[in-house]
Design brief:
The complex is a heterodimer of chains A (321) and B (500). Chain A is α/β, with parallel strands linked by helices. In chain A, 43% of the residues lie in helices and 19% in strands. In chain A, the strands form 2 sheets. Chain A has a 6-stranded mixed sheet with strand order 2-1-3-10-4-11, with helices on both faces. A 5-stranded mixed sheet of chain A has the order 7-6-8-5-9, with helices on both faces. In chain A, strand 6, helix 7 and strand 7 form a beta-alpha-beta unit. Chain A is globular. Chain A starts with a helix and ends in a 7-residue tail after the last helix. Chain B is mostly helical and 500 residues long. Chain B has one domain. Chain B contains 24 helices and 2 strands. In chain B, strands 1-2 form a two-stranded antiparallel ribbon. In chain B, strand 1 and strand 2 form a beta hairpin. The N and C termini of chain B lie far apart (62 Å). In chain B, 59% of the residues are buried. Classes of the chains: A alpha/beta (321), B mainly alpha (500). Chains A and B meet through helix 3, strand 2, strand 7, helix 8 and helix 9 of A and helix 3, helix 6, strand 1, helix 16 and helix 22 of B.
Chain lengths: 321, 500
């Protein structure tokens, strides 16, 4: 602990000294694995705007969309950029789960340089407002009575939606169907149209449907209650002792960059998470502050990957590494 | 009366000089983005997002929407002139548009595309204004079985896209369906036909296939002629460059059905403008009295898909604004923009922000007029492109195609795919295989497979779900009827033979 504090003090005292070690001199490329409008794309663009507004960087940040390969092209692209000081990437849980299930997704987060974890996105478990289920137990009980008859809409099988389902199924020994929809809009439309019974939804997406009386929230996938949903129990409070799997997002750099660069970027993002614009951004989206520095992030990789591998294996997904 | 008051208020806002200016900027950028193959509205809007913080939300929304519907106007230009689809929704426009250009009627085709776009764009806004809430409820009644029905209906159009041989059309379609299967399986995350290639994991982008098969294939086929083809005939004089009264008369039905079909399909979050344009082209051909001339340059073949892909924009805004549900890449980024500006898109959005909604609606009427005024004078200018001799024109087509594909994905792999599909397009031409069924299979294959498998998950494996639900049953019956068209015409021909 002591060396770390000493390091931080040294960092704040000698910030300029570090800047001499490394400073970007041209536009920084920020790689995301989705097209324009995807979750990582939006976060990256918001971060670039905030960093510019708060003058945290002497150069501009430019978002580069490297969509494809089910999310595997962007990490591979970063790996190719080994040693490039002007490239960063925004990772998400998919960068960790993809290599577990997809043979061709060879680049794992372990092969890249960790910089910082930024946000944890909690989620809500929602049903249509006229559904008979008032609590999560109502839902699992109903599912147990009619095994496989109730349905949940969500993303791919490796998505957080399905992981939450697997955890809940295991803890309640109920079973219900999971129907994948590629677009977030289609998932919500399927629930509102009464074609499925339940979904895991992001808080910002659900808010307006609840206000309009179209949706009801049974529980929140979060360790503690979100400020926007003070009356909704967390999974644990609802009686389900399962980990609240967050959607995680953060920053990585290509492999093989010197420690001075890592320290520089770590500092930029640490300062970003202390600004008022960042706090407002988290609040508007009902995200949790998930800041972790490079060293902690590296440890997080291992825990997260281990947990996910176990869950996906149990879900019957083919594991390749 | 509520609508009337709202619209008046909207026009008062939209006609403010600053909003008129941003509306013009939007539709102008949109036209350019539409003309350039590869660069699409989602990427453009994403790039412009930081700029929008300097404007009022109303101005920003007016501008971004302008890019969205403006791009649909420009999309037809390269389809007609160069056989290079400017965007996915303009693939079908190549079929008759490029043939018209080859006959020296490029101006008429471009003009009809602009007029159809204007009529349908306006119908789309009317629909958005008048029937948005009830239609949004209709859209929610649509789920996987209904989408399967819709895709089956689309796929049945293959019998209308076939050239001389139905067997060849079906083979081309099957190839398209197979190409659609390449990539990561959404349901099991397993890789299909990727042969360990990272790039193939996300499947083959159909824009690459369309540009390869249509544009590169056409260039290759033309290049083997020993004497380079004469420049295409271009009639002199402005009057001869624009559509004739007869053209407009021929397009009456196309204008109407394209507008309505495009809007209704646009409202469905899982469909999209490409499907709308294919179905509208098919409907036009199915009901046409000169069905056998389609594909040789009939003007309705341009009007129907160009209309459908424009009114689709108005339709796609319905679920976005009334439910907060985006149906396409562009509406997803518009949704994100609304959130960034501090709005909460959802079922109460219009009620909470009436002035924003109505100024957007009013601006879309204005924007469509601007687009017509902007695009019609461009027609004679663009038509001059075809004056260029083959040794100038062909390199231009190749360049535009390669740059277009590269800007979509910044991937050299896609450029290599473009070359491969160009070769395929050339072979298909030589062997007289029609290319449209290939594209149709590729566009619909993925969505259709997903819808089928989702339906089967919903019904626990029982196929009856597809016919037990009324909407999908109706669609499937229509699909069957279309499939029977060739049988009917055969029977008819046979009967005539017997009688004579």
């Amino acid at each position: 602990m002591a060396p770390k504090i000493a390091f931080l003090i040294a960092l704040s005292l000698a910030g300029s000294a570090f800047a001499q070690g490394f400073k970007p001199t041209r536009t920084v490329e920020v790689v995301v694995h989705t097209g324009p409008g995807g979750g990582s794309d939006l976060l990256a663009r918001a971060v670039a705007t905030m960093i510019e507004k708060e003058k945290l960087l002497p150069v501009r940040m430019q978002v580069v969309n490297k969509a494809g390969g089910g999310g595997a092209v962007a990490p591979a692209y970063l790996a190719e950029k080994a040693g490039d000081p002007h490239t960063l990437g925004f990772f998400t849980g998919v960068w960790l789960t993809n290599p577990i299930t997809t043979d061709a997704a060879k680049v794992t987060l372990k092969d890249l340089t960790p910089i910082a974890r930024l946000v944890l996105e909690p989620a809500l478990i929602a049903v249509k407002a006229d559904a008979p289920y008032k609590t999560l137990s109502d839902f699992t009980t109903a599912a147990k009575e009619k095994p496989g008859q109730l349905k949940q809409s969500g993303g791919s099988v490796t998505s957080r939606d399905n992981v939450v389902r697997q955890l809940l199924q295991r803890s309640s020994s109920a079973r219900w169907a999971f129907i994948s929809f590629p677009g977030g809009g289609e998932r919500i439309a399927a629930l509102l149209g009464g074609h499925v019974n339940m979904m895991v939804i992001e808080p910002a997406e659900a808010g307006e449907h609840i206000r309009a009386g179209n949706m009801r929230v049974l529980a929140q996938v979060s360790e503690r209650r979100l400020s926007g949903f003070p009356n909704v129990p967390t999974l644990k409070e609802a009686g389900f002792d399962v980990p609240a799997v967050p959607q995680v997002r953060g920053v990585v750099a290509p492999p093989g960059i010197p420690p001075a660069n890592v320290a520089y970027w770590e500092d930029v993002f640490r300062r970003l998470t202390r600004t008022a614009s960042w706090k407002k951004y988290l609040d508007d989206n009902q995200f949790e502050d998930g800041y972790q520095n490079a060293a902690d992030l590296s440890k997080f990789y291992d825990d997260f990957t281990g947990t996910m591998r176990g869950i996906l294996q149990e879900a019957g997904v083919k594991i390749v590494r | 009366m509520e609508i009337f008051g709202g619209l008046l208020q909207g026009f008062a806002l939209a006609l403010q000089p600053v909003n008129l200016f941003w509306c013009f900027v939007g539709v102008f950028l949109g036209t350019i983005v539409g003309i350039m193959p590869g660069l699409g509205p989602p990427a453009t809007i994403a790039m412009l997002l930081p700029l929008t913080f300097l404007m009022s939300p109303a101005s920003a929304m007016i501008m971004l929407a302008g890019i969205y519907y403006g791009a649909k106007y420009g999309g037809s230009t390269t389809s007609i002139l160069l056989n290079v689809p400017g965007e996915s929704a303009s693939v079908v426009t190549c079929l008759d548009g490029y043939q018209m250009a080859r006959k020296g009627r490029a101006g008429a085709a471009l003009g009809i595309a602009a007029i159809a776009s204007f009529i349908a764009g306006t119908v789309g806004v009317l629909g958005l204004m008048l029937v948005a809430p009830p239609l949004a409820r209709f859209a929610l009644a649509f789920s996987s079985p209904e989408y399967f029905g819709l895709m089956a209906l689309g796929l049945a159009m293959v019998v209308l896209l076939a050239g001389r041989s139905m067997v060849k059309a079906l083979l081309a379609m099957l190839l398209g369906l197979w190409l659609a299967g390449i990539g990561t399986d959404l349901f099991s995350s397993e890789s299909r036909f990727t042969f360990g290639s990272l790039e193939l994991l996300s499947g083959i982008d159909f824009v690459v296939v369309a540009i390869g098969v249509f544009a590169i294939g056409e260039v290759l086929a033309n290049m083997e002629e020993a004497t380079p083809a004469e420049p295409l005939p271009i009639p002199k004089g402005l009057r001869n460059l624009l559509p004739t009264l007869q053209d407009l008369k021929d397009c009456r039905f196309a204008f109407a059905q394209g507008s309505v079909l495009g809007f209704v399909i646009g409202v469905l979050p899982g469909a999209g403008s490409t499907i709308a344009s294919f179905i509208s082209y098919g409907v036009e051909k199915a009901f046409s009295r000169r069905r056998e001339q389609f594909g040789t340059g009939v003007v309705e073949g341009v009007a129907a898909p160009e209309g459908a892909n424009n009114s689709e924009t108005g339709g796609a805004l319905v679920p976005l604004l009334t439910l907060g549900i985006p149906g396409s890449g562009t509406t997803a980024i518009l949704l994100a923009a609304l959130v960034l500006w501090g709005f909460k898109p959802g079922p109460l959005f219009i009620a909470d922000n009436p002035s924003l909604f109505w100024s957007l609606v009013a601006s879309m009427y204005i924007g469509n007029v601007m687009l017509l005024v902007l695009n019609l004078p461009l027609v004679p200018i663009f038509a001059q492109v075809l004056r260029a001799p083959a040794y100038v024109l062909f390199p231009i087509i190749l360049g535009v195609s390669i740059v277009g594909v590269y800007t979509t994905s910044s991937s050299m792999f896609d450029v290599a795919c473009l070359a491969a599909f160009g070769l395929l397009g050339y072979l298909m031409r030589k062997l007289d295989y029609p290319s449209a069924p290939l594209i149709l299979g590729l566009v619909l294959g993925g969505a259709m497979e997903r819808a089928l498998r989702q339906s089967l998950m919903m019904s626990d494996g029982s196929l009856t779900i597809l016919v037990a639900r009324p909407i999908s049953a109706v669609m499937l019956s229509f699909a069957l009827l279309i499939l029977l068209i060739p049988v009917f015409s055969k029977a008819n021909a046979w009967r005539q033979k017997l009688l004579s």
